[in-house]
From TrEMBL, chain A:
Main subcellular location of this protein, as a coarse class: membrane
Bilayer topology annotation: Peripheral membrane protein
Name recorded for this polypeptide: Quaternary amine transport ATP-binding protein
Xref: PROSITE patterns: ABC_TRANSPORTER_1, ABC_TRANSPORTER_2
SMART domains in alphabetical order: AAA
Organism: Shinella granuli
Annotated ABC transporter domain residues: 2-236
Assigned EC number: 7.6.2.9
Catalytic activity: a quaternary ammonium(out) + ATP + H2O = a quaternary ammonium(in) + ADP + phosphate + H(+)
Keywords on record: ATP-binding, Cell inner membrane, Cell membrane, Membrane, Nucleotide-binding, Repeat, Transport
Localization terms from the record: Cell inner membrane
UniProtKB/TrEMBL annotation, chain B:
Organism: Shinella granuli
Annotated GO CC locations: plasma membrane
GO biological process: glycine betaine transport; transmembrane transport
Alphabetical keyword list: Membrane, Transmembrane, Transmembrane helix, Transport
Lineage: Bacteria, Pseudomonadati, Pseudomonadota, Alphaproteobacteria, Hyphomicrobiales
Protein name: Osmoprotectant transport system permease protein
Cellular localization per UniProt: Cell membrane
Topology in the lipid bilayer: Multi-pass membrane protein
Domain of life: Bacteria
Occurrences of domain ABC transmembrane type-1 (ranges): 18-206
Pfam family, one: BPD_transp_1
Length: 367, 218
């Protein structure tokens, strides 16, 4: 949807952006990543024509942006800056409605939308609509900054280090909120960051820049697994394999349709099922399939009775929607090598093992 | 005691002179705002231009008012207006320029550049940016410039009586020529009171016009 074609910008003798070509698909979150001064901001500002390219072209939905009216173009592109830039003389409501007002939207409609958008980022409209920016905390202001960019429902969103000025805890919260919002709105987002963790968390695509050049453009997992050169490898960090853990959901790494027993099964049945599957443990589920406990082969071999009399509590459970980082962390903290995976209702869905995770991560290195 | 008696006996005349004074200052300030604010905005677009304009405006301020009135006489006599209301207004407009231009310029230059970037990035035109962002934020400082200009002009207008423009200055000039301290004091007191009242009124106006979001202590 957004295509940069051999985009170049020179400020005098400094080439800030140097022949950048890339395609950002519709609905993608493309994070421009790289050290300070590598040209991320300049690249982004050429998209809404705050900066005029020295050469090269930008197409949005196939249309050459240089042929469009700059003001019209900008009103169709949401823009969030690091300094937030809420207008101090306007109420939150009027700040959010800046672009709708410029576009001449019906006042009732835009005010209603402002309230809805505020709710989406967990700010109570009845409290905040009438306030002024100075009466909000930094994190609240940044949320309003994001909401303001979305007010006229633009298909494209540009964000220049939007969460850079927020403390780490709040930043995580706002990032999560933004991801939820994005899952619903499916904007095409170009996002500048120099924080690799933020990029891995938010991006569907990462573009790594150095000295104005685009070095690598790929999905986060590919960049972490196969950095194209030492610069990228260094930039994404020595712990890049660990970073990949957060990109994979438990549901995608677990063994599904596992065998299980119920409380009334005999121990012989349990042993037989474990041996048939070459397992040393088996999970006991309740009557409707909720994970209740587990048995270890060595503890019950040769004993008589039913499962219910010998069951032990599960050391740890992991939700299928969690990422592997949580899973590995839970394994380490409980000192176990496997975890039972359950859905939101607690039904037993599968299990993940340390071995399985290692193999999964290793596979893409050997590809 | 004599002064108060004079004031008491001449209230209608003092009132007439005060209205003349207000009219003179009022009309020149309105004209000065109409020229000074746009000039102040215009010069924010070029640093070199701003330096020159502010330099000239400051230089003009150093011309003594009597001299300025004198300078205008030969120019305006060509259209038969060498003395009286018109030269007085012109001189006052010129004096009011510097505080208004300077405050407008500084206030707009001091608007946080990130607000300007946000405004442009969201698709505001130059005029929309002025109307929605820069002027509302600059307004308190611009009004302070106007306050300076008003107080200054109330004082200068008192001298305009020498070119026949009337106003409260007539009490002062008569007081001097007739060695009558009662008239002199009446004029001086009236001018001071007028200046104080005008200044406070404009302060109240500034409070009223400033967005609550910009007030330092709400
Ligand atoms: N207006 C300008 N005039 C001259 N040089 C500029 C201008 N804007 C940017 N540059 C230069 O272009 C290069 C790229 O700048 P840019 O702001 O795009 O970097 P960035 O990747 O966004 O960095 P950061 O992470 O620090 O924000 C830098 O060397 C910068 O000094
Ligand atoms: Mg930048």
């Amino acid at each position: 949807m957004i295509r940069l074609d051999r985009l170049t910008k020179a400020f005098g003798s400094v080439t800030a952006v140097d022949g950048v070509t890339m395609d950002v698909p519709s609905g993608a979150v493309c994070v421009l990543l790289g050290p300070s001064g590598c040209g991320k901001t300049t690249t982004m500002k050429m998209i809404n024509r705050l900066i005029t390219p020295t050469s090269g072209k930008i197409f949005i939905d196939g249309r050459d942006t240089s042929t469009l009216d700059a003001v019209t173009l900008r009103r169709s592109i949401g823009y969030v800056i690091q300094q937030i830039g809420l207008f101090p003389n306007k109420t939150i409501e009027d700040n959010i409605c800046v672009v709708p007002d410029l576009l001449g939207w019906d006042r009732k409609k835009s005010r209603k939308r402002a309230a809805e958008l505020l709710e989406l980022v967990n700010l109570d409209p009845s409290v905040f609509l009438r306030r002024y920016p100075k009466e909000l905390s930094g994190g609240q202001q940044q949320r309003v900054g994001v909401v303001r960019a979305l007010a006229a429902d633009p298909p494209v969103l540009l964000m220049d280090e939007p969460f850079g000025a927020i403390d780490p805890i709040n930043r995580e919260v706002i990032q999560d909120e933004f991801m939820k919002l994005q899952a619903e709105l499916k904007k095409t987002v170009v996002f500048v960051s120099h924080d690799i963790d933020e990029a891995v968390k938010m991006a569907s695509h990462i573009a790594i820049f150095r000295d104005g050049k685009l070095i690598q453009f790929d999905k986060p997992d590919h960049i972490l697994a196969n950095p194209i050169d030492n610069f990228v490898a260094d930039f994404v960090g020595g712990d890049r394999t660990l970073k990949r853990l957060r990109l994979v959901k438990v549901a995608d790494a677990m063994q599904v349709a596992p065998v299980s027993v119920v409380a009334g099964d005999s121990l012989e049945t349990a042993v037989a099922r474990m041996e048939a599957n070459n397992h040393t443990t088996i999970v006991m589920v309740g009557p409707r399939g909720r994970a209740r406990g587990f048995l270890h082969l060595n503890d019950i071999r040769g004993k008589g009775g039913v499962v219910g009399d010998h069951v032990e509590t599960l050391p740890g459970l992991i939700n299928v929607n969690d990422d592997l980082r949580n899973a590995v962390s839970a394994m380490f903290s409980h000192g176990v090598t496997w975890l039972a995976c359950v859905d939101d209702e607690g039904f037993y869905k599968g299990y993940v093992t340390q071995r399985g995770i290692s193999q999964l991560l290793g596979a893409s290195y050997r590809e | 005691m004599g002064t108060f008696q004079f004031i008491g006996e001449n209230l209608p005349l003092i009132w007439t002179r005060t209205l003349e004074h207000i009219w003179l200052v009022g009309i020149s300030i309105v004209i000065a705002i109409c020229t000074g604010v746009p000039i102040g905005i215009l010069i924010t677009r070029s640093r070199a231009l701003a330096d020159r304009v502010l330099y000239v405006a400051a230089a003009v301020m150093t011309i003594p008012s009597i001299a300025l009135f004198g300078l205008l006489i030969p120019v305006l006599s060509k259209i038969g207006q060498g003395i009286g209301f018109l030269p007085a207004v012109i001189a006052l407009v010129i004096y009011a320029q510097l505080p208004i231009i300077r405050n407008t310029y500084t206030a707009i230059m001091n608007v946080d550049p990130s607000l300007r970037e946000a405004a442009v990035g969201m698709g505001m035109t130059f005029l929309q940016r002025l109307r929605h962002v820069e002027l509302p934020i600059a307004l308190p400082v611009i009004i302070n410039g106007v306050r300076n200009a008003v107080v200054l002009n109330i004082a200068v207008a008192a001298i305009a009586t020498y070119i026949g423009a009337g106003g409260l200055g007539t009490f002062i000039s008569r007081g001097i020529s007739q060695t009558d301290p009662r008239q002199l004091l009446t004029g001086a007191i009236a001018v001071s009171v007028l200046a104080i009242v005008a200044d406070f009124s404009l302060l109240a106006l500034r409070r009223y016009l400033t967005s609550p979001g910009l007030r330092t202590n709400p």
